[in-house]
Backbone:
């Protein structure tokens, strides 16, 4: 009798164990990270992936989202739009609940049509202005678009540096060209002359002629807008040729990875950043420490974007009380989230109807190989 | 045209597999399969230029870009896909003739550099002529074709369309290669002087091999644009031209089915290696290096090497037999 009850108990335990685990598996939330892990976007993609990974590890350790574990698939786009599209299709085949990435604007531009068709929320690190102008209700940014960042840079050039002319160096891809168009428009509106308009190639190694042209333009300041690795090479060449005018940029050129690659050449560079681990905000400082402990490298803005995206998704699911794509997207649109109820999002944030975000941002300068915040700028729209 | 029984059997098995495959695949697999067919068309053309006529061309992706942009621009202007595609092929054919001219003066790696320059030139054109090509923002929402009211917009329908076009263009190329033209191309590759002395017009055949190769790339581009629905300059850069050359060489340069195998390796192998996470592209690279070391004639040279090995064994046996007597 005793043994019978024991075996009964054992089988009951096993059965309930199976039920529990299978239940947990059936309910796991599927998350796809589709990012640049090779090719030209490796720096940005890896940072974004790591930020999101850190966040989901924390979320899982704390019991998941609404009691459901998160199951993560990571895929490489090789920094190619066609591959990004293929990976997005693949994750939709695998019935993912949400997609994070790609980070490169050219890639998300292609892949987001697939996530839109499937009705799956898609977070991106892309900053090109046109992304959120396609009327896609499932696309959400994790950082400012260029059309929101550039006015702040132009204001800084006009009001703080009081320059009359600017030389512009940009990288000729969708990201760089979009930024160049935005800043030229903003400079024009403030009667600042564009003394030189210099185009450079993605993956370019030699910046001597670009820098020479910038020097010969004899402008009051230089505005540089390139991807991370290209920014570092440009900064080294600028120092080599003894360029002595203010170098101003937007986000990328003050990034942690650029400072690491450019070394001393990055000192003195200043401009506007949407996100920085050096912001004087305790939550961001804490994130920076956790990130550095986990990945043995300092996070840049893309790391914060990944971390933020994961927690923004969590907040939206909890608000919608479901993982249904349409409901989650609706919960994000025209909504604000604050750090009191969602500490993971790091800064109070509002999404508008297009999926663009608004929040505080920072004016920074690189001093002794470190990004230093000069001023904190308020959100564009006061709420 | 006669095919051996073995050849015919293999061909029908492959065809049957291509017809059945989509029903076993999800949309991701179907997308890859369609992309593979598109690459096959381009690589078939390059195989004619590189493998049969022996001209080192490094601007194949550029030609594909011309095809893709031509179709995308014409579609946006309201022209039908069925008119835009022949236009793309014709434009690439003419460009191929033009780029063939330097090939009359320079050869081998010098020709490689000349064509490389041409690819860069095309890239710059795609990127900087924003009024026409959309610059780095590319051209979005490229529609898939329809015919007599039947839409090829669905992934499955588009796959079968590309399959039919691939088979027709492969059959056409096979026909050309079996004609006296094909023999003339091979003669041009193996010994141009002797070819000329036997009456092969070297000038004409050099130009025509470039032009046909380019036309195939143009057709591939014309299908690539509606497949991805979006084009920008990046996929038509030098890297892709090198990848096409790799497809031809790894598969078996100068062998008809070489590009079929080569493009499968270039496209599908990295996908199957994805389980290796961060290492998958490195493993892919090593695999290609290893293949080039042990199989310099490409994968399709395995059979020849095996026959050669058997013949060598047999002759050794004979030789020792003679010695014993």
Residues:
């Amino acid at each position: 009798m005793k043994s019978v009850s024991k075996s009964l108990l054992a089988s009951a335990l096993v059965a309930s164990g199976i039920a529990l685990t299978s239940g947990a598996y059936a309910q796991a939330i599927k998350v796809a990270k589709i990012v640049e892990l090779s090719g030209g976007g490796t720096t940005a993609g890896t940072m974004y992936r790591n930020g999101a990974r850190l966040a989901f590890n924390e979320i899982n350790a704390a019991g998941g989202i609404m009691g459901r574990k998160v199951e993560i698939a990571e895929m490489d786009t090789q920094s190619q739009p066609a591959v990004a599209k293929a990976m997005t299709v693949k994750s939709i085949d695998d019935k993912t609940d949400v997609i994070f990435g790609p980070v490169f604007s050219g890639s998300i531009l292609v892949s987001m049509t697939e996530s839109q068709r499937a009705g799956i929320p898609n977070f991106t690190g892309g900053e090109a202005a046109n992304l959120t102008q396609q009327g896609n209700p499932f696309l959400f940014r994790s950082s400012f678009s260029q059309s929101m960042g550039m006015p702040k840079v132009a204001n800084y050039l006009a009001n703080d540096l009081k320059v009359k002319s600017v030389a512009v160096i940009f990288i000729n891809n969708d990201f760089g060209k979009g930024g160049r168009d935005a800043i030229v428009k903003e400079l024009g509106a403030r009667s600042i002359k564009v003394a030189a308009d210099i185009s450079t190639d993605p993956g370019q190694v030699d910046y001597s002629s670009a820098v020479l042209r910038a020097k010969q333009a004899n402008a009051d300041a230089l505005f540089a807008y390139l991807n991370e690795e290209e920014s570092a090479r440009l900064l080294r060449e600028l120092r080599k040729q003894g360029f002595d005018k203010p170098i101003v940029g937007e986000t990328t050129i003050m990034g942690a990875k650029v400072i690491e690659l450019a070394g001393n050449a990055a000192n003195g560079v200043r401009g506007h950043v949407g996100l920085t681990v050096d912001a004087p905000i305790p939550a961001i400082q804490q994130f920076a420490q956790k990130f550095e402990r986990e990945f043995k490298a300092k996070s840049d803005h893309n790391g914060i974007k990944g971390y933020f995206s994961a927690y923004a998704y969590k907040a939206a699911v909890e608000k919608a009380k479901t993982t249904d794509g349409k409901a989650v997207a609706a919960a994000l649109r025209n909504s604000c989230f604050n750090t009191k109820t969602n500490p993971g999002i790091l800064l109070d944030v509002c999404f508008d109807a297009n999926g663009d975000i608004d929040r505080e941002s920072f004016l920074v300068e690189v001093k002794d190989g470190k990004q230093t915040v000069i001023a904190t700028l308020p959100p564009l729209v006061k709420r | 045209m006669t095919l051996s029984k073995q050849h015919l059997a293999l061909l029908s098995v492959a065809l049957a597999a291509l017809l059945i495959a989509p029903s076993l695949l999800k949309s991701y697999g179907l997308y890859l399969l369609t992309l593979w067919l598109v690459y096959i068309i381009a690589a078939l053309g390059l195989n004619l230029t590189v493998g049969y006529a022996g001209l080192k061309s490094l601007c194949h992706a550029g030609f594909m870009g011309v095809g893709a942009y031509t179709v995308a621009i014409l579609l946006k202007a309201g022209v039908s896909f069925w008119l835009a595609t022949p236009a793309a092929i014709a434009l690439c054919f003419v460009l191929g003739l033009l780029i063939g001219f330097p090939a009359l003066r320079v050869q081998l790696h010098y020709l490689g550099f000349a064509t490389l320059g041409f690819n860069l030139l095309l890239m710059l054109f795609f990127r900087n002529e924003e009024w026409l090509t959309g610059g780095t923002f590319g051209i979005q929402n490229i529609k898939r074709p329809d015919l007599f009211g039947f839409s090829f917009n669905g992934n499955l329908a588009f796959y079968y369309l590309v399959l039919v076009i691939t088979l027709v263009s492969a059959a056409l190329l096979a026909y050309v290669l079996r004609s006296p033209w094909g023999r003339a191309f091979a003669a041009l590759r193996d010994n141009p002087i002797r070819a000329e002395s036997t009456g092969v017009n070297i000038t004409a055949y050099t130009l025509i091999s470039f032009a046909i190769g380019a036309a195939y790339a143009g057709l591939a581009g014309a299908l690539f644009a509606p497949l991805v629905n979006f084009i920008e300059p990046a996929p038509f850069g030098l890297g892709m031209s090198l990848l096409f050359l790799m497809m031809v060489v790894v598969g078996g340069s100068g062998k008809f089915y070489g590009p079929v195998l080569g493009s499968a390796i270039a496209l599908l192998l990295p996908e199957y290696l994805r389980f290796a996470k961060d290492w998958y592209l490195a493993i892919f690279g090593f695999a290609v290096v290893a293949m080039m070391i042990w199989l310099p004639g490409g994968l399709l040279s395995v059979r020849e090497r095996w026959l050669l090995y058997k013949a060598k064994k047999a002759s050794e046996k004979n030789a020792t037999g003679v010695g014993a007597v």
Summary: The radius of gyration of chain B is 21 Å. The mean pLDDT of chain B is 88. The interface with chain A takes residues 26-28, 31-32, 35, 127-128, 135-138, 140, 228-230, 232, 234-235, 274, 277-278, 280-281 of chain B (CB under 8 Å). The beta strands of chain B are 146-147, 150-151.
